[in-house]
Amino acid sequence: MGFQDTPEEWQVTATETPFTGNKTSVRTDEVVMPDGTVVRRDYQVHPGSVAVLALDDDGRVVVLRQYRHPVRHKLWEIPAGLLDVPGENPLHAAQRELYEEAYVKAEDWRVLTDVYTTPGGCDEAVRIFLARNLSEADGERFEVSEEEADMELARVPLQELVRGVLAGELHNNCLVVGVLSLAAVLAGDGIESLRPAEAPWPARPFEA
């Protein structure tokens, strides 16, 4: 089996949802521990997300700067968004987000990595794609609003982003995981070793 995470589900004796929001909710489960005791666990229920590390022919990554109210910061991020429809194909969602946030399309798509962002308090799963062979998207630009109306776009060399991550200057989860994963791939087995864009994703099953 190798060194890998494995699915497991401990017995839940009771559950309730004390809060339901627009996109996410909070759930409280009573979970049986290995010693037989029962404890309460509160966590955010999340539909899942996709993110796109879009790499151009000059080795630059498409990034955007957006205000994030919970942490009171403007963060440099890679294009990302929610899986709004249950069972939605994550590749299609990623292509949509790249178009809406960066007005870019890509010809080559691969799965870079899959992560649980904060598994101690949230069930959010994120699939991060690598997108290459970039060009300007077709059609009208997506009309932005709220935080996205103040968004800045840039293309930054991958190594500059790696330096910023290791220096503690860049903090967005998907950007950090994405750029370090790509740096590892380029230093190791190469992009051809990555999984195909339609690779199974047990955390968020989808139809092709």
From TrEMBL:
UniProt KW keywords: Hydrolase
Nudix hydrolase domain sequence ranges: 44-178
GO cellular component: cytosol
Any GO BP: ribose phosphate metabolic process
UniProt KW Lyase keyword: no
Protein name from the UniProt record: ADP-ribose pyrophosphatase
Classification via Gene3D superfamilies: Nucleoside Triphosphate Pyrophosphohydrolase
Gene Ontology MF term list: hydrolase activity
A Pfam family reported for this protein in Swiss-Prot or TrEMBL: NUDIX
Family matches, as InterPro entries: NUDIX_hydrolase-like_dom_sf, NUDIX_hydrolase_dom
